[in-house]
Structures are given as structure tokens and as C-alpha cells.
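PROTEIN DESIGN WORKSHEET
SECTION A - STRUCTURE
LENGTH: 244
C-ALPHA CELLS:
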């Protein structure tokens, strides 16, 4: 059940494509590309998007409850993607707060949510996902951190259409469910697949570094970090989590 699907071989960024068409799209509309010339991650970082088997996907969603309900959405989408991949046999896929999917401590996929809309009105969201499927080693040399392919995480790689359809369907169902139950309904599901649960981590907050043990998320979607001072919730887009 996909209300509109644009398949575009070469594009600058699937998120940009959807952002440019926000007013003209039905909820759940999807754009899929084979190659991105300007794939992007959080805070202007680059998302390496070579041609081949990787998935570059963006979905449009309108949240009638407005921008405030968009908080925590990347956590919910992370659960949707992880569970979809697990259902296809990649049972070790985990989430990393706030917007990544990991396999064996390596980055498998990233989520980028961009939005437009006025305060007090519906929020128009573009939910982007880049998933490494079978990227060649030499294509990923510019990535400044450990990364993985779905190929490694599955005993048998699912056929590409099945992979895309499973992800799209799970994202749509999960977003609908989120609108009814809010983040509360996802905290336990997220914590169950948290790559860093009960592990030592550091948070990079601008120039500041805080070390502690990760204790999952709370009902606001904040990361819980335990230090000698106790457990502190951290929230906000300017925080990066790193394993120690
Ligand atoms: P954080 O979100 O915690 O700040 P991050 O380093 O993962 O951490 P993001 O902005 O989420 O930052 O993602 C962009 C980063 O992802 C890039 O700077 C690069 O290190 C990495 N990256 C880029 N392309 C890929 C890819 N195809 N696969 C895996 N990782 C990638
Ligand atoms: C991240 O880890 O920072 C998020 C990366 C998101 C990449 C995807 S690929 C499809 C969509 N189009 C983009 O330009 N970015 C997202």
C-alpha cells in the first residue's frame, strides 16, 4: 500500500526531492534512488551514496499533531527499520541513539528527518533512510567510521523489491501507530534493541565530553546516561554518542 512511488535512478538527494514537493504529496509517498550526488546526513554531513545495491529512500509524512510530535520520530523509525530487517533475517541489527542502525558495532544505516511547517499547524516531514546493502570496500573508504552492509547481517540477502517493500510497509504502519500511541509505546521496543544498552559510552556535546554507562531511553526519547552523579537524561540534536 504505497500511495505514490517515484523511482529515480540518479538524484541529488531523495530528501531534497521530497522537500521540494511537500505540498503535492500524499502521506506515505516514497522516493527511491540508485545513486545520490549530494546525499546528506545530520548537520550537513555527507552520506556516501554510490551506485549499486544500496537503498536511498525518503518518505513524506504529515503529522497533524504538529512539530512537537516529531520529537523522537527518528527513534520510532529506527525501531521500524530494525524490526523490518530482522523480519528478513538480519536478526542482529540494533539501534544507536538517536538516528542510526548498527550491525556488530558498525554503521549499517542512517535516518535523517527534515521538516517544514508553522508552529501550531501540521508538520510536514521527510523521513530519509540510507541503507548499505552490498557497498564495495573501496566505495566506502571516505567514511570516517566503521560501517557494515546488510549482506553481512543476513544469511541470504533479500531480493531488492522485497527489501524496499518491507521497509516501506513497516515504516507506514509504525508511523500510523506512533500517531495513536506516542513514544511511550516504543520505549521498551527501542531499549530491547539498543546497541549500547549497559555499555560504557561518551556523549559529545559541542566541546564537552561526558562519559558514563548508557541506560536506554526514557519516554521523552532522551538518552539516559549513568555517571557517578546518577542517571541524567540527554536530549537534543547537537549530541553525538560514541562507544568507549
Ligand atoms: P551522530 O549522528 O551520532 O552525530 P554520525 O557520525 O553517524 O554520528 P551522522 O550525521 O548521523 O553522524 O551521519 C553522517 C556520517 O555517517 C558521516 O559523517 C560518515 O561518517 C558516515 N557515513 C556516510 N556515508 C555512510 C554510509 N554510506 N554508510 C555508513 N556511514 C556513512
Ligand atoms: C545520518 O546518519 O546522518 C543520516 C543519513 C541519511 C541518509 C539518507 S539517504 C536517503 C535520504 N536522502 C538524503 O540525502 N539523506 C537521506
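SECTION B - SEQUENCE
RESIDUE ASSIGNMENT:
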Amino acid at each position: 500500500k504505497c500511495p505514490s512511488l517515484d523511482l529515480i535512478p540518479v538524484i541529488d538527494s531523495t530528501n531534497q526531492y521530497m522537500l521540494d514537493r511537500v505540498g503535492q504529496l500524499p502521506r506515505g509517498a516514497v522516493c527511491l534512488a540508485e545513486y545520490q550526488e549530494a546525499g546528506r546526513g545530520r548537520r550537513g554531513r555527507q552520506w556516501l551514496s554510490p551506485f549499486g545495491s544500496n537503498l536511498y529512500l525518503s518518505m513524506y509524512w504529515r503529522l497533524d499533531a504538529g512539530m512537537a510530535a516529531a520529537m523522537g520520530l527518528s527513534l520510532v523509525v529506527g525501531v521500524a527499520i530494525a524490526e523490518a530487517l530482522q523480519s528478513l533475517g538480519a536478526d542482529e541489527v540494533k539501534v544507536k541513539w538517536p538516528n542510526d542502525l548498527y550491525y556488530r558495532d558498525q554503521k549499517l544505516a542512517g535516518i535523517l528527518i527534515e521538516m517544514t511547517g508553522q508552529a501550531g499547524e501540521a508538520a510536514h516531514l521527510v523521513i530519509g533512510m540510507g541503507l548499505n546493502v552490498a557497498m564495495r570496500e573501496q566505495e566506502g573508504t571516505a567514511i570516517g567510521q566503521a560501517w557494515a552492509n546488510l549482506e553481512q547481517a543476513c544469511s541470504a540477502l533479500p531480493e531488492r523489491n522485497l527489501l524496499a517493500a518491507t521497509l516501506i510497509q513497516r515504516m507506514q504502519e509504525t508511523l500510523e501507530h506512533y500517531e495513536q500511541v506516542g513514544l511511550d509505546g516504543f520505549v521498551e521496543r527501542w531499549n530491547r534493541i539498543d546497541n549500547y544498552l549497559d555499555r560504557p559510552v561518551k556523549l559529545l556535546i559541542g566541546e564537552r565530553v561526558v562519559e558514563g554507562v548508557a541506560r536506554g531511553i526514557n519516554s521523552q526519547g532522551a538518552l539516559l546516561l549513568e555517571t557517578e552523579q546518577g542517571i541524567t537524561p540527554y536530549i537534543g540534536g547537537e549530541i553525538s554518542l560514541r562507544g568507549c
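SECTION C - NOTES
The first strand starts at residue 5 and ends at 11.
The chain has two domains: 5-192, 200-243.
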